């Protein structure tokens, strides 16, 4: 089998099964595991999959920059944001992550809501600047321009002084085995700390993030108190999380 045809087959299997197991595929094709691993490595370099121990998972398209993410599933993100906004109760302290879905959540908070929103996202702060009764606490630090959020030691020190009711987390990938992942190492540390500072963590995940993985681990999928995703997402994509006892809200 030519290399091109072999790679096409790998991508077809990945789309069909949601994962690649190198040993199984090598036996199926009658090739060495080294050959399969080389193909996986080259496909990963092209951004077509995410290598994991023993094989590969779908790569999340959500690792593009903020402007690029705005073009991915815009209507689904509106509905997910609306569902998240309905979870916020009067008097709560909530942490809103950066990201395009979190912006939609901020945009749909009721105008009469009295609550506190903590965020390290200037986009969220600007969205809530005109809200009549939501207090906004902005976490300062170095601006990570790719995701338009603050990161670094200053942000971490401030966050350690905050205890929140709920953290609405944005991810680029969520997988029952690979966990909650994102595309930047420093962001992964920030998201983990944000989760640690909240009683509950609600993961905002449009369909392309389910079953996908990115290079940097935030934490195991068990960190999620619940997941909000699209209403028409296939049952097979949410079944693993339900099996783990994680509630899934279809928006």
From TrEMBL:
Alphabetized GO MF terms: DNA binding; DNA-binding transcription factor activity
Keywords, alphabetical: DNA-binding, Repressor, Transcription, Transcription regulation
Pfam families: DeoRC (PF00455), HTH_DeoR (PF08220)
Xref: SUPFAM superfamilies: NagB/RpiA/CoA transferase-like, Winged helix' DNA-binding domain
Organism superkingdom: Bacteria
Domain annotation HTH deoR-type: ranges: 3-58
Gene3D superfamilies for this protein: 3.40.50.1360, Winged helix-like DNA-binding domain superfamily/Winged helix DNA-binding domain
InterPro entries: Carb_Metab_HTH_regulators, DeoR-like_C, DeoR_HTH, NagB/RpiA_transferase-like, Tscrpt_reg_HTH_DeoR_CS, WH-like_DNA-bd_sf, WH_DNA-bd_sf
Transmembrane helix keyword on record: no
UniProt cross-references to PROSITE patterns, sorted A to Z: HTH_DEOR_1, HTH_DEOR_2
PANTHER family: GLYCEROL-3-PHOSPHATE REGULON REPRESSOR, HTH-TYPE TRANSCRIPTIONAL REGULATOR SRLR-RELATED
Entry function: Repressor of the lactose catabolism operon. Galactose-6-phosphate is the inducer.
Listed name of the protein: Lactose phosphotransferase system repressor
Native source organism of the sequence: Capsulimonas corticalis
């Amino acid at each position: 089998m030519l290399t091109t045809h072999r790679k096409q087959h790998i991508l077809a299997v990945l789309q069909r099964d949601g994962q690649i197991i190198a040993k199984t595929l090598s036996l199926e094709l009658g090739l060495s595991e080294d050959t399969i691993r080389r193909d996986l490595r080259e496909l990963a370099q092209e951004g077509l999959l995410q290598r994991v121990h023993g094989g590969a998972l779908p790569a999340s398209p959500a690792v593009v920059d903020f402007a690029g993410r705005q073009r991915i599933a815009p209507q689904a993100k509106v509905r997910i944001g609306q569902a998240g906004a309905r979870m916020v109760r009067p008097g709560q302290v909530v942490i809103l992550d950066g990201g395009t879905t979190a912006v939609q959540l901020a945009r749909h908070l009721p105008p009469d809501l009295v609550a506190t929103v903590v965020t390290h996202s200037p986009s969220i702060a600007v969205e809530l600047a005109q809200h009549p009764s939501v207090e906004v606490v902005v976490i300062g630090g170095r601006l990570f321009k790719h995701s338009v959020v603050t990161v670094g030691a200053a942000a971490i020190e401030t966050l350690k002084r905050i205890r929140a009711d709920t953290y609405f987390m944005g991810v680029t990938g969520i997988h029952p085995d690979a966990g909650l992942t994102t595309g930047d190492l420093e962001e992964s540390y920030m998201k983990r700390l944000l989760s640690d500072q909240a009683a509950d963590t609600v993961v905002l995940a449009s369909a392309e993030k389910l079953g996908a993985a990115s290079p940097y681990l935030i934490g195991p999928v068990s960190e999620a108190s619940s997941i909000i995703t699209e209403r028409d997402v296939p049952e097979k994509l949410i079944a693993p999380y339900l099996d783990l006892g994680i509630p899934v809200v279809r928006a």
